[in-house]
Amino acid sequence: MTSKEFEEYLKSIGGLENGFYSDRPPIVKNPCSCDDGWLQLIHDLIEELLAAGWDKQIKQIKEKFGGLRFYIGAATSEVHKIITKYEVLSYEICEDCGEKGELRRDCGWKGSRWYKTMCDKHYQELKEKLK
């Protein structure tokens, strides 16, 4: 899924609500601080959350330590279990392309520890860039 397709999806559901400022318009631009490979995963997460009665309030969507983070306000335990399920799934999906991936712990410059979940292809491309 591309960023443009994801934004079309957000528009189709009426956008997401700003979890910090209720007086702001719905979020219909891509609010994710991660690469496009996870957009389908986030789309599926949102769909499952909506089916569980989630109020669409979002605080932040990002990558941290190689995994997806999806921050919301108060919600039912069912909603939080769904989020946890998708955060765990993100460690098996390449953040760049959405294909099968794994957590890589050596993606930083000159040996620094930077975590990213990537497929073999994108991992090798990154390692070549870092040489």
Our count of helices gives: 4
Rg over alpha carbons: 16 Å
Oligomer: single chain
Strand arrangement within the widest β-sheet reads: 2-4-5
**Uncertain stretches:** none
Strand content: 15-25%
Global mean pLDDT: 94
- Compressed to H and E, one letter per element, the order equals HEEHEEEHEEH
Shape: elongated
SS content category: alpha/beta
Give the proportion of residues in helices: 25-40%
Distance between the termini: 30 Å
Question: What does this protein structure show overall?
Answer:
It is a single chain. Helix content is 36%, strand content 17%. It has a domain at 3-92. The mean pLDDT is 94. The strands form three sheets. The protein has a three-stranded mixed β-sheet with strand order 2-4-5. Strands 1-3 form a two-stranded parallel sheet. Strands 6-7 form a two-stranded antiparallel ribbon. It has 131 residues and is an alpha/beta fold. A hairpin with a 2-residue loop joins strand 4 (60-64) and strand 5 (67-71). It is elongated and about 45 Å long. The chain contains four helices and seven strands. It has helices at residues 3-12, 39-51, 77-89, 120-130; strands spanning 17-18, 32-33, 57-58, 60-64, 67-71, 102-104, 116-118.
